[in-house]
Q: What sequence folds into this?
């Protein structure tokens, strides 16, 4: 088979000693980038482009491009691994796609199951990475043709489905979940309007023109909210943290996470292919799906291992899926893949339909190196589970300042302005009071992520149809997404009206 022959040639390139070294350095830096909140793969990859250029200056143009992209891609998928560590141990998402992992991972850590959560995150990430890469080898061409058929109307409806599905993250009250979703959408409108250039809700503050930094809000709500809770509710917590009895997952843990890992890998891969969807959306969708199909949905948010396995698998698979539109169409699906595309163009390698013909060494060398990189990540992360798990046993008087320091450093590193630090503190206080009053935080975060994307795609669709809203119903795929969205909302409500007990119910 042609694909396998090309892949073998790719492995020959990837196994050259300097490429192995580049892959290792990439995944190592990527893991560190994932652990530190705020830096993220986008900043990590951008910072390393000049470094890789000087490191590969002695190689030929094709070899230099291959080695550089191997290192930069290693940072990208390595960050997906690393982001789960602080989410699980400190409730501090290192990466925006790890926000969902914090919901159950941190609860598992508090129950003394940090080792199992970290191991499952590493195993799930590894399996998802391999699944995505196998799919990338065989499906790159046909899948890229399907993704091309997605217009702005289909994207708009897909995002609406994402927002409606957020009721799956709603905790006890559907009303509170929708309130938080709307609040997230409102926060997403802050900043300069991308079409008209009008400033919205900026109150003449230059810092608000760019909008609210997503990770600042997420770290504030989750990490600092937890810090304030620990400080203000000291009387309920005697400072003893549950001992970690076991580092590796039990047979039951593996059994419980096998199906979520498989589903998360496939779902994440297909969402990753869609330009603009990305790993964050993939992790939210996989978590919601697991909660919907679970026999014990009330366990989610209380330390369900499926709530760690599914989103961690999905965000890794999405980073593999995102390579398809980048390599085969030359369309970057996310900020990080846009930077990777810029790096390739810098080396005179144009991503797109001709890449596999004109630069097979670069394309297949990269794909093969991702197989090797995933193995390296598993070898790096599994022995370190015990080390990471020790973090949770640190007494709160040492741990809380560390969480605050990581949060402040990570957030300040993104844009280096004090406004973000004030926003971080505000979100921390808000996170504490919202969580205390049973307002779910995840819908707010998802609303903030999807809001600008929904608005952008709606405007593009309406521009193409001269303002005719029927464009969303005329396209079959868009209509299907909207019908599923309506059912997702109405079925729990109808069941409730008929007196049936549903998980997402109104609090009395």
A:
């Amino acid at each position: 088979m042609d694909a396998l022959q090309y892949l073998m040639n790719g492995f020959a390139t990837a196994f050259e000693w300097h490429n192995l070294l580049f892959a290792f350095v990439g995944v190592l830096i990527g893991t560190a980038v994932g652990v530190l909140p705020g830096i993220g793969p986008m900043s990590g990859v951008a910072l390393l482009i000049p470094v890789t250029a000087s490191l590969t200056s002695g190689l030929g143009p094709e070899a230099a491009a291959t080695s550089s992209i191997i290192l930069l891609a290693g940072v990208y998928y390595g960050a997906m691994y690393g982001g789960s560590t602080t989410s699980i141990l400190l409730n501090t998402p290192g990466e925006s796609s790890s926000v969902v992992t914090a919901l159950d991972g941190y609860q598992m850590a508090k129950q003394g199951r940090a080792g199992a959560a970290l191991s499952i995150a590493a195993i799930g990430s590894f399996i998802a990475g391999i699944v995505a890469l196998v799919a990338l080898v065989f499906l790159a061409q046909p899948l890229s043709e399907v993704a091309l058929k997605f217009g702005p109307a289909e994207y708009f409806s897909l995002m609406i489905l994402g927002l409606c599905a957020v009721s799956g993250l709603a905790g006890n009250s559907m009303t509170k979940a929708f309130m938080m979703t709307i609040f997230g959408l409102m926060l997403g409108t802050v900043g300069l309007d991308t079409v008209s250039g009008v400033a919205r809700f900026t109150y003449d503050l230059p810092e608000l023109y760019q909008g609210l930094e997503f990770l600042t809000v997420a770290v504030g709500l989750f990490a600092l909210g937890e810090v304030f809770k620990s400080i203000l509710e000291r009387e309920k917590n005697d400072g003893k943290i549950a001992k970690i009895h076991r580092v590796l997952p039990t047979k039951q843990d593996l059994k419980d996470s096998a199906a979520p890992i498989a589903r998360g890998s496939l779902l994440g891969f297909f969402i990753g292919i869609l330009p603009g969807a990305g790993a964050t959306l993939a992790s939210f969708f996989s978590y919601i799906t697991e909660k919907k199909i679970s026999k014990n949905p009330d366990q989610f948010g209380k330390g369900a291992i499926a709530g760690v396995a599914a989103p961690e698998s999905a965000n890794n698979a999405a980073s593999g899926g995102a390579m398809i539109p980048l390599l085969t169409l030359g369309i970057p699906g996310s900020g990080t893949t846009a930077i990777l595309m810029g790096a390739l163009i810098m080396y005179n390698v144009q991503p797109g339909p001709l890449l596999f013909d004109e630069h097979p060494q670069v394309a297949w060398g990269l794909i093969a190196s991702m197989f090797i990189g995933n193995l390296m990540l598993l070898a790096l992360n599994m022995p370190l589970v015990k080390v990471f798990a020790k973090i949770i046993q640190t007494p709160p008087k040492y741990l809380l300042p560390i969480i605050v320091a990581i949060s402040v450093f990570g957030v300040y590193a993104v844009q280096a302005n004090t406004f973000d630090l004030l926003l971080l503190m505000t979100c921390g206080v808000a996170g504490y009071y919202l969580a205390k009053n049973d307002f779910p935080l995840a819908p707010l975060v998802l609303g903030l992520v999807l809001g600008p994307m929904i608005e952008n795609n709606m405007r593009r669709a309406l521009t193409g149809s001269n303002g005719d809203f029927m464009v969303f119903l005329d396209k079959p795929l868009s209509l299907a997404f909207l019908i599923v969205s309506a059912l997702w909302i109405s079925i729990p409500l109808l069941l409730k009206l008929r007196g049936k007990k549903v998980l997402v119910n109104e609090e009395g």
In short: The chain is about 75% helix and 0% strand. The first helix runs from residue 2 to 14. Strands lie at 191-192, 199-200. Confidence is low (pLDDT under 50) at residues 235-242, 502-508.
